[in-house]
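[Q] Does anyone have a clean structure-token version of this?
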Amino acid sequence: MRKLTKRFIIASLEDLNLSNPIRYERYYINDQLRVQKKGEKYQKEILDDENNIVEKNNISENEFLNLKEKAYSSIIRDSYLFLKDSRISIKKYLGKYLGLYRVEVTFSSQKEENSFIKEKWMGKEITNSPLAFDKYLSKLSEDEFRKELKKYLK
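[A] Here you go.
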């Protein structure tokens, strides 16, 4: 079952009350397999066709490094929690995707999602764009990424 989540873009983290970040290094081996270093943990995740995690396991650093070598793409980002609303997290992208700040708002029900009014500081909604999920972001060339980002950060 897909989580009820809306995604928005912002231009910076300026003036936001945020938690300390957790660094994610994600490596996409194929559409169903990714490995990541999350803080100091190494994990392997199996994804279904809708990008839902169907299996998640902690793995050794060696297994992580071996699988990382087979990756077609990588994403490095810092993840923050918005301290005024526990439903909101913000991803700050580094490296190839520098300039992308994605806000994710997760809801516990359809009613909650339908009644949500976005914060003034949130930019355009990107829920249905390739910027909304790391899996789709990882498939964009640098030019495609820049064009997509420009659409939403005018």
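[Q] Thanks! Anything notable?
[A] The beta strands are 4-10, 22-30, 33-38, 41-47, 53-58, 73-81, 88-93, 101-107.
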